[in-house]
Amino acid sequence: QVQLVESGGGLVQAGGSLRLSCAASGRTFISYARGWFRQAPGKEREFVAAITWSGGSTTNYADSVKGRFTISRDYAKTTVYLQMNSLKPEDTAVYYCAARRAIGIGTGRPNEYDYWGQGTQVTVSS
Q: Could you tell me the CA-to-CA distances from 107 to 27, 51, 60 in Å, in that order?
């Protein structure tokens, strides 16, 4: 099993920045890729970004966050980060970290991920 704990959420004004962290524990070696998803009230969970965990660093982003968000990893700390810049009110959501066992970065569907954190709230005021 892999346990994931997110942190770093909060309230920020539009145009501001936040950095989310996702710390992993347990059998982290079985995780091939990590992803960030978000879910706003009344909406489905949507893909934000993903990064491969071992080997070369391959990343993937949703079109809505390209150029504003950056996903990165600290292999020694088993932690993945999501740097969010130029935040917009529509970025308001609960942000979830996820880990995937299968090889490859996936296509961004939630059902491709096997482990999930509890989520952290991000609120962007206008």
A: 23, 11, 9
45-65 pLDDT, tens digit per residue, is: 999 999 988 777 899 999 999
Residue type, 22: C
Question: Looking at residue 76, what DSSP letter applies?
Answer: T
Handedness of CA 111, 113, 115, 116 (dihedral sign): negative
With 90 as the cut, is the pLDDT of residue 19 above it? yes
Give the contacts of 90 (CB within 8 A, at least 6 positions apart): 64, 124
Q: Which residues contact 69 (CB under 8 A, 6 or more apart)?
A: 48, 49, 61, 82, 83, 84, 85
